[in-house]
Amino acid sequence: MKRWVIGADLGGTLIRAMRTDLDGRMLARAEVHTQAQQGPEAILGRIFEVIGQASEGTDPGEVLGIAIGAPGPVDEQGRLFDPPNLPGLREVSLRERIRDRFQVPTFAGNDGNLGALGQLRFGAGQGVKHLIYMTIGTGIGGGIISNGELLIGARGFAAEIGHQTLVQDGPICGCGQPGHLEALASGPSIARRARERLAAGASSTIGQYREGGNDVTGKSVTDAARHGDKLALELLREAATYIGLGLVNLIHILEPQRILLGGGVSQAGELLFETVRQTVHDRVMSPVYKGVEIQPAALGADVGLMGAVALVLEQSSSA
Amino acid sequence: MKRWVIGADLGGTLIRAMRTDLDGRMLARAEVHTQAQQGPEAILGRIFEVIGQASEGTDPGEVLGIAIGAPGPVDEQGRLFDPPNLPGLREVSLRERIRDRFQVPTFAGNDGNLGALGQLRFGAGQGVKHLIYMTIGTGIGGGIISNGELLIGARGFAAEIGHQTLVQDGPICGCGQPGHLEALASGPSIARRARERLAAGASSTIGQYREGGNDVTGKSVTDAARHGDKLALELLREAATYIGLGLVNLIHILEPQRILLGGGVSQAGELLFETVRQTVHDRVMSPVYKGVEIQPAALGADVGLMGAVALVLEQSSSA
User: Which of A85, B26, B132, B175 would be a feasible disulfide site paired with A12, CB 3.0-4.6 Å?
Assistant: First the structure.
């Protein structure tokens, strides 16, 4: 009998789903705009729609399971807590609703955690039992693999690794607290620093790398840095130093073998990684921690979908 | 047949051992001064001596196992890396040497990790699957229980939870890095801040609580705070705020159900715990994290020994 797995990803902008075989080979995919402002039932309808499209032509008995990832704290029932861009989903169990609709085993998790599972099974973390995946984009999140298993904490809310205080009374984070890594090194934070410096009269070409008529973004800074802009290089080094310090904390707490960096800011490549690695090398408390590998994550924009597929496979094999 | 367990603890000042039954009831104990300056073989001789004393009158076949805890990074073979007060032990496998001498299954671990295991099995963490144990004394260390199991990382070096950067360019930590929690809230750090403030002319009774002819210590500050000294209270609040911020990081990363604080500084009791709890309440990124319990650790000075006993029992049951 043919067996398929469905992975889905609920984001603030897009809802996506993918069907793969048991080896994670993609066979079908679908996506739709979230239109979160239309409320939870409309969002659920669209989740059903993309899952339906991705599973088209299959028999329900052939689907091993469905998993869905979502941002922010998500419990094992797939209830979203504090979803900043997805209001109204707090009381909804995504897991229950999807299971009721499609009548197959269903799972849910935080998108950062699923990203780590995706790296472990299909990406740049294969064979690594102690792994940290950090995604640096609009926010900073991730997932932790400890001894080969996802570390989710008491209710699934662990691994909020972007929310470490690094600067007392530093800039306010999206979560409302001061000085978190996310507020110092995410794309919007880098862009904010660039705008501050430009407003203060710094000489730089960053403004030339704005897209359309838009304001300066993290990508403008990265693009300018690639062309040798000094301010842009300085701002990336600053962000990379904070990322390195955050990783040092995680290394001391978790002692991983490998750390994978993904997300838009990681696209800066060696401009970022060099300073991250140097900071880790310089700031770990003992030489025993210097061997940790710091590498680019794999799977690109599909990391959440592949992570959801990995969750189904993991849960099905352990059942 | 009677079965016994031997727990041992190698410290910079004392080497201790304890024999218990399989329920952790203490039946014999022994201790000796470490005299670390005499070198590794002399230390090993004294470890054998206290283990021998604690097992006196038992038959080798009756001993289920021996475990030993030691400070700093310790690998599973019981090799000490960077032991600041125990030079020369780096190349020695405590585990192998003790096993060869006593011919029973032997285990080794970091004393903070064993402390967490001790709390889980015999102390204030019984029945808690997601637990953090933090000891705040001369240094700040601890252990992490995730999903009922000790989180030790790739080689046993995880859970160095006192070595998080909280203040960029802050005071230098014992490990050589700036601004770590340990450099902001350990007993010696609190004493250093007190001496700085007194030298700068602050009005305080802290000096009256020195012991013997000694300099001001963390305990002097705690004692003065208990008697209402304003500077002492302020210094404790400052340390407790840093401890709270460090715990917030750990809560976001690990999502424990309970956190246990032990060690000399924790003896300040509510003078410390009140501010720690308030800081955690105020500084977690989401209300979902506010329920974590923050309580005093149990087992007092025997935490390391009871943790070693717990390690033997855990390893023996999983074998």
Answer: A85
